[in-house]
Amino acid sequence: MFDLIAQDQFDRLPERYRERARQIALRVQEIDRLLAPGSPETIRDTALRLIGQFRPQPGVDVAAFGREFRGVCADLPEWAVCEAANDFMAGRVANHTGQFVPTCAEFGKQARAIIAPFHAERYALRIEASRLFDRAADEKRRAMIAIERADPAVKARVRAIVAEARAGAPVTLSQPHGAISAQAQAVLDAMKKTQQHPSKISQTRIGKDARR
């Protein structure tokens, strides 16, 4: 369990979170046993099943195929190897013609797709376990805030602050939407006028020649 969450953090968890940590640890152990690598005998028997049911790949040596197949399946659990073989034999693998022995890459891809959900579940459980302490601390803070907000003295202090703020708020005079004084309007109109820049063409040599 303590490879998922540190013991000092576990000891400080509330009982509800400790129970969840125990559940996570049990499930992770189950998945670890489920994903334990299979025996070489099972891998060999599966390769023989495939060779016996399908035509050999053209130009592929059977002995070389067996060695590569054993290497591909070395870290796979027995049940996944068997399930992948059953999928090929039952025609449940997309893009496989059903005639030739699947390549080692095809077989490994199918077998790993079978166990992928268990890898994902174990990863998610480990992430959840690593965050249990933070969740418990956050829950404790929320509970303390709720208790403080429920305190009559705190409520009275908040009401006093709100009343004081409202009493000292500036009084705003309502005006019609878009209403503006004549002086302000004049300033705005002056800002809208574009500044006139006199042409300097007449000061150039071409402009002086044109006037002659």
Question: In terms of topology, how is this protein built?
Answer:
Elements: H1 7-11, H2 15-34, H3 40-53, H4 62-72, H5 78-89, H6 104-130, H7 132-150, H8 152-167, H9 182-192, H10 205-211
Helix pairs in contact: 2-6, 3-4, 3-5, 4-6, 5-6
Explain what you see:
With 212 residues, the protein is mainly α. 67% of the residues lie in helices and 0% in strands. It is built from ten helices and no strands. The chain has helices at 7-11, 15-34, 40-53, 62-72, 78-89, 104-130, 132-150, 152-167, 182-192, 205-211. It is flat.
Specify the structural class: mainly alpha
Count every helix, treating DSSP H or I runs of 4 or more residues as helices: 10
Classify the helix fraction into a percent range.
55-70%
- Could you give a short account of the major beta sheet? none
* First-to-last CA distance: 102 Å
Shape: flat
Strand content: under 5%
Q: What integer is the average pLDDT?
A: 84
